[in-house]
What does this fold into?
Amino acid sequence: MDGLEALREQGRRLTPQRRLVFSALLESPGHATADELCASISHKVPGFQRTTVYRTLDLLVELGLARKVQLGHVNAYEAVQAGNESHQHLLCDHCGATFDVSAPEVPEWVERAAVKIGFGVGRVELVGHGSCQACARGQAGPIPGRPVG
Ligand SMILES: [Zn+2]
Ligand SMILES: [Zn+2]
It folds into this structure.
């Protein structure tokens, strides 16, 4: 079952607008901010309502079809697809590139620590900060206005 089918299964009315937002999310490589999705949709549908993008993203998160991830100062979204349900993120502090990494032991560690204080962990989000390969080699410049470090 693909994401759109899943959305239909949820019994919600699949409006063309929602379909557009979800498709844009599925098409965007890695993680996209609401603004990036707005920009890519406005490309195809000039004048597309920004609030529709925000509302649909909230709905997709609620339905478990998308995940909101905090990457540094930025809220980004990614589609939940088979095989990527559980991963952690690496964020390059220089160019802002993000990477998904599989680290199944991370939630286990956090759960083990949490159980000592009787805390029930639902989901663990870890962001590793540092330099991507290109930045480490000095091939990518910092993004103007993006704080470094
Ligand atoms: Zn980088
Ligand atoms: Zn991710």
